[in-house]
Amino acid sequence: MEVDRAGPGPGSSRAKGRLPSQLRTIVSERCVLDRADGSAKWTQEGSCVLAAVYGPRQAKVQREDGERAVVEVVYKPRAGLQGHTERSRELDIRGVLEGIIPLGMHPRTSIMVVLQVIQDDGSVLSCALNAAVAALVDAGVPLNSMCASASCVLTQEGQLLLDPDSCEEKAATAQFCFTFPHHFDLTKSAEGEAVVSQAALGCRSHGNFKTGHLLEALQLCALGCQRVAAFARLSLSKSLPA
């Protein structure tokens, strides 16, 4: 399933003429791995992440929890070994996933999510989060809600850019990644309109910025997540049998 969010923007200096609030082309594929319980590949033009889900399955004794399932996340870089950045992203992604999976439904089990970065041209954390959720859906793991993630950067001129590429990230003074839960409202349409919560499920930010920049980044990423959620709804409805 593919959607093109990029388009020519008059007066825009971004690649391909994108406006500050435009996403890149999104492509989503599910059931791409045979041996995983669920899998998905999520692409945002130059960034691509492959996700595999294993479980719920019996947890190892040393990790077993008698009251809830244990979520394990493995984040693999495009090349080389894991570093501090990859381990930090594992914690961020695990925190988000623990917020949408009803862990009490599957005590003494483990749900493992393995994420392999295939290409990294910016916004790779949000790309990985969206891939993880798509793979969980493909695996049939129960969820309290789905969620969507989007990134933005603050330029040296004080402008916010949604879904930045790697060049925009390198030139930015600050970077933000927000994740919002969403659900499908079946009362608004037969397929269900994607409704994004106003409360963020996860936030990662670094760099030099003011409180006002953070609030503006939250609003911009919420707009991006609304579009990602709408795409996820369309992608899911297209994959279901008529």
Automatic annotation (TrEMBL):
Residues 22-142 form the Exoribonuclease phosphorolytic domain. Pfam families: RNase_PH. GO terms for molecular function: exonuclease activity; RNA binding. Its main location: nucleus. GO terms for biological process: nuclear mRNA surveillance; poly(A)-dependent snoRNA 3'-end processing; rRNA catabolic process; rRNA processing; U4 snRNA 3'-end processing. Keywords: Exonuclease, Exosome, Hydrolase, Nuclease, Nucleus, rRNA processing. One of its GO terms (cellular component) is cytoplasmic exosome (RNase complex). It is found in: Nucleus. Belongs to the RNase PH family. PANTHER family: EXOSOME COMPLEX COMPONENT (PTHR11953), EXOSOME COMPLEX COMPONENT RRP46 (PTHR11953:SF1). This is Exosome complex exonuclease RRP46. It comes from Tetrabaena socialis. The lineage of its organism: Eukaryota, Viridiplantae, Chlorophyta, core chlorophytes, Chlorophyceae.
